[in-house]
Amino acid sequence: MTATSETLLAVDGVSLSFGGVKAITDVSFDIRKGEIRAIIGPNGAGKTSMLNVVNGFYHPQHGRITYKGKTRPRMRPYQAASQGIARTFQNVALFKGMTTLDNIMVGRTLKMHRGLFWQMLRYGPAMREEIEHRRVVEDIIDFLQIESIRKTPVGKLPYGLQKRVELGRALAMEPELLLLDEPMAGMNIEEKEDMCRYILDLNKHFGTTIALIEHDMGVVMDLSDRVVVLEYGHKIADGTPEVVKADPKVIEAYLGVGH
Amino acid sequence: MFYRETGQFKQSYAADQAVFPILQDRLGLAAILLVAFVVVPLFGNEFLLASVMVPFLILSLGAIGLNILVGYTGLLSLGSAAFMGVGAYAAYKLSTIFPGVNILVWILCSGFFAAGIGVLFGLPSLRIKGFYLAVATLAAQFFLQWCFVRISWLYNDNPSGAIEVPARTLFGLAITGPSATPVTRYLVVLVIVVVMTLLASNIVHGRIGRTWMAVRDMDIAAQLMGIRLLPAKLLAFAVSSFYCGVSGALMVFLWLGAAEPSAFDIKLSFLLLFMVIIGGLGSMIGSFFGAALIHILPIVIRGLPEALGLPIAAATVEHLTYLIVGALIIFFLIVEPHGLARLWQIAKQKLRVWPFPY
Amino acid sequence: MSLKNWLYALSATAVLTLPAVHDAQAEDSIYVPLFTYRTGPFAGSGTPIANGMHDYLTLLNERDGGIGGVKLIVEECETGYDTKKGLECYESVKPKKPVIVNPWSTGITLPLIPKAAVDKIPVLSMAYGLSASAKGDTFPWIFNPPATYWDGFTQILQYIATQEGGGIEKLKGKKIGYIYLDASFGREPLPLIEQLSKELGFEAKLYPVAAADMQNQSSQWLSVRRDKPDYMILYGWGALNATAVKEAVKTNYPMEKFISIWWPSEDDAKGAGDGAKGFKTLNWHAVGADFPLLADIQKHVVDAGKSQVSGKDKVGQVLYNRGIYNSMLIAEAIRRAQEITGNKVVTGEDVRRGLEGLNIDDARLKEIGLEGFTGAVKLSCTDHNGHFSTFVQSWNGTTYEKVSDYIAPLSDKVGPLLDADAKAYAEKNAPWPARSEACDAS
Amino acid sequence: MLYNIFIDPFVQMVQMPDLLVQTLWEGLVSGVLYALIALGFVLIFKASGVFNFAQGIMVVFSALTLVGFYEKFSAAGFSGHAAAFVALILTAGVMFVLAMLVERVVLRPLVNQPDIILFMATFGITYVLIGLGEMVFGGDPKQMITSELFLPSGSVDVEMLGGLVSFQKIDIAAAIIASAMIVGLALFFQKTRIGRALRAVADSHKAALSVGISLNQIWVIVWFAAGLVALVTGIMWGARSDVSFALEIVALKALPVLVLGGLTSVPGAIVGGLIIGIGEKLGEFYWGPLLGGGIESWFAYAIALLFLLYRPQGLFGDKIIERI
């Protein structure tokens, strides 16, 4: 599936500061339904903070965020999740004491409804529900080719696999908007290629809108439909990879020309 | 060699989702239950039943309750004895107000009162974490204990200030009071503990258990998965306190027979915490291991000099018991910080590859 | 693998030792377990009591070869003043057919009260436990001589009245402070205080001390300074007593007006230095080792190295002698049981009858070697306490000296309360078995 | 009712200012002692991340050791000041050996384990110390050797505000010694090489290791320092009541102090101690009677809990910033 012109999420004049430190200053951009949108910028540019604002973990002092046509005043992270925003993290944030399977099953939490009573009995409706979701999770496990580590506690997995499990957990939420924070950091070439393929497959086959932060320019330029560039919390460029690549401000920011 | 899941293929997710997916585990469990239900009552003497097994099971139940909170949800609590007290006092009040209803009903219902109080004291857990939360739960411990002393309505104005257990029967058989035999008491406790352990195990293996563990392992990520922290933590407090409450009611009604408020003092809270940590955080079987180590081991040590005919004074034995238990706590933590349950897993793993080392 | 072997070894030992609770009671001996606490936060009080109890019974074995020619098997079980461990002790001694148990903690006594009748083991809770268990009709198996906490309270009140130069009517208009351990022990007199303060017209001021704050009483004593009570009454235990005396001295409270129930020891007063002189406690037996029996203990037990006392001066201290008194009751009950039944080896049932028939008069005390040690003790079928007189002793800096005559309790005040409580206990614990044990004619 | 809660206590304070001063003083003294125990916790927590539950038993153990040594000397015919101070030095030596043992037997094998495991290990230490202490010294309470250590007794009674306020000399001494101890520790950690190393360790174990600081050495030093703090606390508290295992319970009072002040802050421990000490005395004295008295057992925890709700990291604790 390719990008449409319909706006899924619009960030409008958002500013965020911690105490006196300004993390984001008056940034606006939009994410269209079905596109892969990259957010790039040097270290400390406010990229992760931006994602945190989008899924309600930080609350900006100024600005508006419109998601699916609705402007939300103050949103809690779990509300973002229930509206279909999922994400992965820069430093893998898996549930380390749990197995791969359980981690991904946690992603199904919002879709499971049986209460304490049936859970206690683990029989009838609760069991049926459990199995039904297990099927979905097994599909994700198949898709990500992590069958062999199904029952391994994730704390013991190598970094690359952990990133993959984390992606699986986000996918289990069947998100409309998937936020990926440096999905390929610390990976070798092959792992990166795998990850790229998963991302593209997701976007093409399931139509998931993806916003990603990535440092590997090659990956960004190949994957993304549009790119927004942040520097010191300001937006300095926004557009297709070609446009952004040619922007002198971006070149300056990355190469430090003139400083 | 014998403990191996090779060749056991699962035809369905249902079979794979079972709590004990491996045949040998199921056989082992059946053997344990057989011993517990048949061998122990048949061959155990009164001391074994009344002073070893009944307290062990009741403490295990309390440890499971605390484990749900500390081990599964990652909320450190030092107030579990007070929640046990709430259960005990609730069961006492209910059974004296409605003496006609079977005592077991009230023992189980007492858990709901403990759960309610637990939720109340769990509220701060949204903001307070780690050791800070532990100290906050100490407020519950001391305040509730003060209530047990001060609110004489709770103990029906007994001049002894204690709750006394009236004799009650089940199917015509005395289960509480002086004429309840240790075997009956043991079997009643065993049934309750086995059923409640099964239910707890089901809960922690399902969605709710995963929610708790997610909150424990990384609460921020859990939130972004759509988990609401406060309800999840409060549910953990509720279920945990329910278990503690029932365990407290059992303690007074089927073990002690009468209890002063000091039966629920801070020492008991610490003991439960020992059991949970030594046994293994986030492990059902670990709760039993922990209770066994903390409750049974001192009894064994105390019994050793007599059994071996060594003339050691009772007080010295007690000192030695403290020394040895303390040393063993440190020893076990060094050998396996993740508790006896992990040792158990390692042992199973070794069995799996036996007789070859790898 | 070594670890696993280790675990195996451990579990094997566990399996082997647990059933090893032997019932190897010789046919020609009497088993007397002593529940003691030489460990834990209350060890300071528990140790001298344990020594006294132990040494007396050991003396009987060493000097007389037991009681009536039957050797006593004396075994201590360490409770640490902990109810759970106490019950464990009870279960562990039960198969050995004890003829009597002394729980030495109210918390352990309470669960044993209903069990005693079923297990046929009499419980001797000497001046502690459940006051209402003085009623032999309701509690045939429980004995709590020589006085209850209620008796003690009225005895202190009467002493105060005599200090004011008259009968209890002199209490009118007085302000009496009551500082107590905020647990069942200290709270027991509260209903009595409420009733008596109305009847006698004194004002009661209550100062509860939580168990956790035993050593931290400055707020209570500040309140004492504010309220300025004419007299202070103390119901404490362990470190509470020592701290209370120190705080009283600090607050400049007149010590001669500070009177305690019978539990403080020498150590409790000693720590406060000279300021503690004049501190008073109730007692019902003498202090000091100046008795033939204690001399015998010194000779046959302490000097023979069969005692656990840490020094010779410990023999004769208040709580040591308390233990002596306790063991005297045990021994005399066994002796009386032998007389009644004619059997030499007696059972718990026999000793229960022996306790009901207990009659230690002055002549008998002299025979024992404790002339003047204490008043006569006579129990009966209905009265398991006796409500005997106690006296007031005063701390002189090195020891306690008797400063009053024996004071009888106000039985007309306490009696009805006791009856009501015994009745209430039986009702609340319905179905409470009616007494089926016959009374011996005494 | 409302009058009793909101007006009457203040009326009392104004009417009897001498008692108010006395209450504040008593609160201050117990606050200082709470602060001392809390200080022991903080030192260890800062340097090794261990929530040392054994601090309470260390107080008892050190005091017992001190009295035990002294009793041995006086039994051998040496008594008086010199013997007392030799006993004091020997006790300090014992605390040093204890610190070494703890480091070698417990901390070193358990390095990098989760907090709760180390917390648990200190329970093990507690048990060992209880068993050992009772076996060696017996369970009966002992008198603290105050006069032998030149600690004053008696009181200074000051007439003021229409009443008599009495300051116990031992309490004054406790306050002075505790303050001196705190200042001394502060100087030690600010000015000396070891102090700098300790602060580095408190910031980051790994970073400290990478610049060549010996963690093991630091741990021995802080446990020893905590042991000395425990000894001073034991002497002071033992002088107020007696030296017995019941003292261990008092140490629990340091926990609300600790969370109030923040687990990692030395000034926090002191300010927290004073707040809890004074707060609970005022609460018990003026508001306690409304609830029948004896509320001190939980009042401190209630203060700490309410405060934590407002500021979860304690008064001076490091602010918790959640990041992903």
Automatic annotation (TrEMBL), chain A:
Coiled coil: none annotated. GO terms for molecular function: ATP binding; ATP hydrolysis activity. The lineage of its organism: Bacteria, Pseudomonadati, Pseudomonadota, Alphaproteobacteria, Hyphomicrobiales. GO terms for cellular component: plasma membrane. It comes from Aminobacter aminovorans. CDD domains: ABC_Mj1267_LivG_branched (cd03219). Keywords: ATP-binding, Nucleotide-binding, Plasmid, Transport. SMART domains: AAA. This is ABC transporter. InterPro entries: AAA+_ATPase, ABC_AA/LPS_Transport, ABC_transporter-like_ATP-bd, BCA_ABC_TP_C, P-loop_NTPase. Residues 9-257 form the ABC transporter domain.
From TrEMBL, chain B:
GO terms for cellular component: plasma membrane. Keywords: Cell membrane, Membrane, Plasmid, Transmembrane, Transmembrane helix. It is a multi-pass membrane protein. One of its GO terms (molecular function) is branched-chain amino acid transmembrane transporter activity. The keyword Acyltransferase does not apply. The chain crosses the membrane at residues 27-44, 50-70, 75-92, 104-123, 130-151, 186-204, 234-258, 270-296, 308-335. Its main location: membrane. It is found in: Cell membrane. PANTHER family: ABC TRANSPORTER PERMEASE PROTEIN, HIGH-AFFINITY BRANCHED-CHAIN AMINO ACID TRANSPORT SYSTEM PERMEASE. This is ABC transporter permease. It comes from Aminobacter aminovorans (Chelatobacter heintzii).
Automatic annotation (TrEMBL), chain C:
Residues 30-396 form the Leucine-binding protein domain. It comes from the Bacteria. Coiled coil: none annotated. It holds the Pfam family Peripla_BP_6. The keyword Signal applies. Keywords: Signal. Residues 1-26 form the signal peptide. Belongs to the leucine-binding protein family. This is Branched-chain amino acid transport system substrate-binding protein. It comes from Aminobacter ciceronei. The lineage of its organism: Bacteria, Pseudomonadati, Pseudomonadota, Alphaproteobacteria, Hyphomicrobiales.
From TrEMBL, chain D:
It is found in: Cell membrane. This is ABC transporter permease. It comes from the Bacteria. It comes from Aminobacter aminovorans. The keyword Zinc does not apply. One of its GO terms (biological process) is amino acid transport. The chain crosses the membrane at residues 20-43, 50-70, 82-102, 114-137, 170-189, 218-237, 257-278, 290-310. Its main location: membrane. Pfam families: BPD_transp_2 (PF02653). Keywords: Amino-acid transport, Cell membrane, Membrane, Plasmid, Transmembrane, Transmembrane helix, Transport.
